Amino acid sequence: MTLPLIIYRSLRQHALSTLITAGSIALACGLLMTVWMVKTQAQAAFVSTSTTFDAVLGARSSKLQLVLNAIFHLEASPGNLAWTDYETIRKHPAVKTAIPIAVGDNLRGYRIVGTIPELFSDVEYAAGKNYAVEAGGKIFAPGEREAVVGSFAADRLGLKVGATFNPFHGLAFDEKNQHAEVFKVTGVLAPTNTPADKVVWIPIKGVQTMSGHDPRAATDVSAVLIQLRAATAGFMLDMMINKQGNRMTLAYPVGAIMTELFGKISWFDRVLALVAYLVALVAAGSVLASIYNSMSARQRDLAILRALGARRRTIFGAVVAEAASIGLLGAVAGYGVYFALLAGIASVIRVQTGVVLDVTSMHPVLWICPLAMIALCALGGAVPALKAYRTPVAETLAPVS
Amino acid sequence: MLTVADLTKSFTTPEGGRVEIVRVPQFALAAGEQRALRGESGSGKTTFLHLIAGILAADGGRVKIDGVDMAALPEAKRDRLRADKLGYIFQTFNLLQGYTVLENVLLGMSFGPRGADKAHAIEVLGRVGLSHRLGHFPRQLSTGQQQRVAVARALANRPKLVLADEPTGNLDRVSSREALALIREVCRENGAALLLVSHDDGVLGQFEGMQDFAVINEAVSKKT
User: Fold this and answer.
1) Is A9 on the interface with B (CB under 8 A)?
2) Contact A394 B21 (CB under 8 A)
3) Would the CB atoms of A401 and B47 count as touching at under 8 Å?
4) Domain range for residue A86?
């Protein structure tokens, strides 16, 4: 009862500085956890999304641009491939599946991608998971002006089975560039938590032959998504297409390209982490300063406790425990900061990329960071605790008579 | 109960010299005995009580409480002995301002042998007439009531020896008489020895066993 009471009363007596200090600790702790989790979650989500296909074949360009355009539906298409290129790669003995896509239109900012129905029937978007349409819907027919809408896009655009729409030309929405063709929604995809959720899928012919598109490109494709029969085949294709050829680019292996991307932007994580570490250090310093500054006012209380029989180490422990308690308060509030920040960032990432971060997932950093913060605060409390430890009882209580 | 032998304490003056405040060759107090020491301000009586309580280290000599030499113990054991055997009533009460009346008494008990016994703390506070003030803070009490809290805190652990340093110094005459009677009565009930120091003749006159501190403290004798 003694120690908790001493800590509680002391925190109450210095409520304002306690709250401000705990707030800065919450911010530091929340920031650190958010930076760490966004980094690991985003990397995991992007890499796992990109493992659906082993390689992407496209016009000569950077591999990263190809992957971002064909799998994450970001960036512009680097150019087109002829239908024969698609046929050639499809028939290659090392290729298990080849899905052509064609891009160039949007529906109010959501990308329209032309493809073949096999994408939904033959490809698992994650291990053991196939695309599925919500009840009452079906996949589009190849030769028809029909569409299957990703769950996120359908929700945002208010599209249901039976609804019709006119596509808009280009990847960016411009009301003036509306196409004349009318497409009918035949199905809404069940959520996959992948970029496919924010795409409006139509038959590839629909994009190729859309009014206003170059008739000479009526059979072209923007890229081909490839699953290989064996991983080693990728290196052979890489040699054949990238090193010996100069017309096309094979982005392989897709996962490694994404990992490389995260490697390139890791400096940003490090800057954020450094900022968070500094905030943590300042927070621990403010714990030290706020308790240390209150020591003069508290010396009499400490001397009284000593006179009542409290040992020096009890007093030392009480001050350290008080500092740790401020750290604990901050760490608990830090979870609030973390969840709020992560939810906000996850929402932005989802809107921008369709990739969904799991805000409820656990990671050791979620307990290591708060514990480290509490330990850092306790360490900060050791300095004023030493001052408390040395409080001269008789001199503090009364002048010598 | 309490025996003091060759106890000395000196302090460094601002000029760098040394001044001896306490030199008590011999002093004893029997169990249950109540004794008052008379002394003017600056005579070293508070220092004497601090030395007995072990919150100030002596330069030399012995202070035995229940046969245990306080001066020979390491600090942690002195703290334990103080918590176990002593109750201290300060002139300025020295209540913890951020704690309630009940918490002040409970904290005093928590360092003692029985630990914080809430029921007993409430009982002791009832004994000093503060049952209705348990949740109040010291600043919400009158001076006399604060004095009673200090008495309750000092006696809650059922100490063998109660040291009272000008315990009525901040009270008016009527309150002073009542407070002193209460301290003596509760000490008597608990079988505790009481050593009180004061310069107030009104207080000292109530003690049969009154002694002039200047007589037992040779340091003062030499100065005068």
Assistant:
1) yes
2) no
3) yes
4) 55-252
Cross-chain residue pair A400–B108, CB shorter than 8 Å: no
- Other Cβ atoms closer than 10 A to B9: 23
Testing the interface with A: which of B50, B105, B155, B217 to mutate, by most A Cβ within 10 A? B50
- Of A143, A152, A144, A164, the C-alpha closest to A188 is A152
How do residues B14-65 score in pLDDT, each as one tens digit? 888 888 999 999 999 999 999 999 988 888 888 999 999 988 888 999 999 9
The CATH class of B2-223 is: alpha beta
- Residue A210 falls within a domain, yes or no? yes
Do A344 and A195 sit in the same domain of this protein? no
3-state secondary structure of B174: helix
Best of A7, A302, A304 to mutate (most B CBs within 10 Å, chain B): A304
Final residue in a domain of this structure, among A204, A222, A252: A252
- For residue B92, count other CB atoms closer than 10 A to its CB: 14
Residue A260 forms part of a structural domain: no
Mean pLDDT by 10 residues, chain A (401 residues): 84 87 89 86 78 90 91 87 94 94 93 95 87 92 93 93 94 90 95 90 92 83 93 87 88 87 80 81 81 78 87 90 92 94 90 79 90 89 87 70 41
Among A190, A224, A252, give the residue marking a domain's end.
A252
Nearest to B193 by CA among B7, B66, B25: B66
Phi, psi dihedral angles at A185 (to 5 degrees): -75, 120
A11 CA: distance to closest CA in chain B (Å): 10
Residue A123 lies in a domain: yes
For A359, half-sphere exposure in the C-beta direction (CA atoms, 13 angstrom radius) is: 16
